[in-house]
Amino acid sequence: MRDDLSFLDGSLPAPLRQDRIVSIVEGAPGLVRTASLAAALGTSEVTVRQDLALLDQEARIRRVRGGAVRRGAGSPERPFEETAVEHQVAKAAIGRAAAAMVRSGECVVLDVGTTPAAVASALVAREDLTDLTVVTNSLTTALALEPAVPRFTVVVTGGTLRPLQHSLVAPFLGAVLPMIAADVVFLGGTGLDVEHGLTNVNLPETEAKRMLADAARRTVVVADGSKFGRAHLGVVRPLEDIDVVVTAEVTADAVAPIRAAGVRVIVADEDGGAAPDGRKSHA
Question: What residues does the HTH deoR-type domain cover (predicted)?
Fold first, then answer.
């Protein structure tokens, strides 16, 4: 009878345990956290991490920060935790340059995604900023902003939770945004090109991004160079409705057509940051 209870006491043989991990991850819509797997398997998080490393090497699942996701998913959308570890230096530079465009007393809207999250961290680091209101539909971004309260007022839009990006989308997203007249919105996306402007792989989040942009007077796109020249399913904003693009780790050839279309482009790891009005800082 003890053998029948082996799953409960954590003594499931490693091959069977790993097969079960694959089954759980394959059946999940997005990220499966290490702690959840450990609880489901009745084993330690250390053991699960070792299993995930092996399964990733065998290309049976994809290991990401905090857990695992399935391989070969039908949608090209990737979990927040997976993209968070990519282009980290570029995103930090973009965050600092974007945060330099913000003044005390303003109302800022922050989109979902790892690059807007970098903007949030850079805003928190600016100890000179006071009386700032930040509106976001990202639970991750809201938590990143929490250390700046009460210097900042952080408003979470509400809406329906999407676990893949920890984002809030319609329905109910639109209840708060029509009541807000923000100074600037910082938008992320998965593609930026001349023909389509800013695009995104996911339609519910595309709709949410449009609503965020409609709540602000100025639109600033924050995107590293890997997004340039790409177009995806949902059109968020055409180039004519984008005021500034803040980027990094990008080639001159990629930037040239965006600038030729009349959009100001700040290359954060080249321009040395931006002044509050978005112009290059010479300080």
Answer: 17-70
- 216: helix, coil or strand? strand
Which of helix, strand or coil describes residue 9? coil
Give, to the nearest 10 degrees, the angle between helix 34-41 and helix 14-26.
130
Whether residues 28 and 119 share a domain: the answer is no
| Mean predicted confidence (pLDDT) in 65-75 | 67
pTM of this prediction? 0.69
- Kindly tell me the number of DSSP H helices and DSSP E strands found in the chain: 10, 15
Please answer whether residues 200 and 206 qualify as being in contact, where contact means their C-beta atoms are separated by less than 8 angstroms: yes
Could you tell me if 180 and 109 are in contact, meaning their C-beta atoms sit under 8 angstroms apart?
A: yes
What span, in angstroms and rounded, lies between the C-alpha atoms of 19 and 283? 58
Q: What share of the chain is helix, strand, coil (3-state, %, to 5)?
A: 40, 25, 40
- Asked whether residue 220 falls in the same domain as residue 172, the answer is yes
Claim to verify: residue 129 and residue 201 sit in the same structural domain = yes
Record the tokens describing residue 118, joined without a space.
């970098």
Do 95 and 193 share a domain, yes or no? yes
What single letter denotes the amino acid at residue 167? S
Cis, peptide link before residue 29, omega less than 30° from 0? no
Whole-number pLDDT of residue 126: 97
Q: Are 198 and 185 in contact (CB under 8 A)?
A: no
Confidence category of residue 275, pLDDT binned at 50, 70, 90 = very low
CA distance 168 to 155: 12
Residue 99 has pLDDT above 90, yes or no: yes
Q: What would you measure as the largest C-alpha separation in the chain, in angstroms?
A: 75
Task: Spell out a b/e string for 63-79, using b for 16 or more CB atoms within 10 Å of the CB, else e.
Answer: bbeebbbbeeeeeebbb
